[in-house]
Amino acid sequence: MSKINYFKYYKTSPEIIKLAIMYYVRYPLSLRQVEDILHERGVDICHETVRYWWNKLGPILAKDMKKKTSFSGSNWKWHIDEVFVKINGKQHYLWRAVDHEGTVLESFVSKKRDKKAARKVLKMLIKKYGIPKEITTDKCPSYGAALKDLGLKHVQNSTRYHNNQVENSHLHFRRRERGWNKFRSMGSLQKFTSIHGSFLNHFNHQRHLESRVQFKNLRNASLASWQEICA
Asked: Of all residues in the chain, what percent carry a pLDDT higher than 90?
């Protein structure tokens, strides 16, 4: 079966489209900033065109990146935490789970921070990755109640400072939130965090743990894989 050409009916070249999507999703840039960057390179497009591109092609590229990655999911240690997010002036919660290496496992948006929401996040993670040996959380009682319902209370670790892994991972999202100038719907937030997580996992390498040569090899491999996905 021949590969589907997702860029077939676009007037702009695929190289420009994929560059605009990568700029917008990977870096903390607004739509107008991406428009200005491309204009400096001789590409005259509207910021709404960039919005259309990432909305239409972003999920497809993120799905392909998940297939290409060698990461199969970790069930050794999870770090789970929730971020307070304002949507149309109302407070919502973005639940984010990362593993011991900082790889984003799951993102989920909810209106409440209760046992029902925590249980849903945990069930999604267990269904996809299996039961972990340890789940590190903060002292929010919703986690304990949800884990007790699932019979996993014994794997919870709520020791102070042990959840810094996911706390540091929130910084990437907060930078993007400022570039977005807040969010306007739960659907758009859920969609973007899913795409952003795939891009983050694909291009993020633990450079402080790798030698310079190894880091450059990993970075080149990520770019080569990205070029193959968008070919």
From this structure: 41
Residue 118: both structure tokens together: 């925590």
Question: Are residue 83 and residue 60 in the same domain, yes or no?
Answer: no
Tally of domains in the chain: 2
Task: Read off the pLDDT of residues 70-81 as tens digits, 9 standing for 90 and up.
Answer: 666 678 899 999
CA distance to 5, 203, 225, per residue, from 230 (Å): 9, 15, 9
In a domain, 27, yes or no: yes
- pLDDT of res. 108: 93
Mean pLDDT of 192-211: 81
The answer to whether the CB of 89 falls within 8 A of the CB of 147 is: no
- Would residue 192 count as lying in a domain? no
Structure tokens at 44: 């005259």
> How much is the pTM?
0.83
Mean of per-residue pLDDT scores for the chain? 86
Q: What is the pLDDT of residues 75-127, one digit of tens each?
A: 889 999 999 998 888 899 999 999 888 888 999 999 999 999 999 999 999 99
On whether both 58 and 98 belong to a single domain, the answer is no
50 & 102 share domain: no
109 SS3 class? strand
Query: How far is residue 156's CA from residue 134's CA, in Å, rounded to a whole number?
Result: 6
How many CB atoms are closer than 10 A to CB 204? 17
Q: Is residue 194 part of a domain?
A: no
Q: Are 128 and 73 in contact (CB under 8 A)?
A: yes
